[in-house]
Amino acid sequence: TKEDIIKLTSELQDLKNKVLQTQANVVLANDLLQQTQGQVQQQQQILGLIQEQVKDLEKQKQQLQQVVSQLQQAAQQASSAQQDLIAGIGEVIHAAAPAAPAAPENNDNNDDNAAS
Fold first, then answer.
1. Which ranges of the sequence are coiled-coil (predicted)?
2. CA distance linking residue 104 with residue 101, whole number of Å
3. Domain-located, residue 35
């Protein structure tokens, strides 16, 4: 019937509109997918740069640890040298000083006995 044809024509037009809308949505979805893929690639590049920086920092850390170890060894050697120098100075002073005569002892007991 004519009414059925009109109804089917209307439904067909609705379906066409829905297909067009779906196609537009697919285009938008593809655009978003491409943008997302681009962002993922950028993030992967950034991650690679960060990983390189981490490796560089780890290498610098190892170098600094070696420097600290060398400085600690140098400080220990300097301390030993200082102690040896002090001991040597003490020996020189002792050897250079004339033998001092023994100081007379102050014997208060003898004085007290003499006074009694």
1. 5-84
2. 9
3. yes
CA distances from 73 to 66, 77, 116 (A): 11, 6, 68
Ramachandran quadrant class, 98 (left: phi over 0; alpha: psi -120 to 50; beta: rest): beta
Query: What are the pLDDT digits (tens) for 51-98?
Result: 999 999 999 999 999 999 999 999 999 999 999 999 999 999 988 877
Q: Is residue 79 part of a domain?
A: yes
Task: Tell me the C-alpha distance between 22 and 28, whole Å.
Answer: 10
pLDDT, tens only, 23-57 = 999 999 999 999 999 999 999 999 999 999 999 99
Range of the domain at 53: 2-90
Residue 15 phi, psi (nearest 5):
-65, -40
Token pair 């938008």: residue: 28
Q: Which long-range contacts (CB under 8 A, 24 or more apart) does 75-80 make?
A: none
Size (the chain), residues: 116
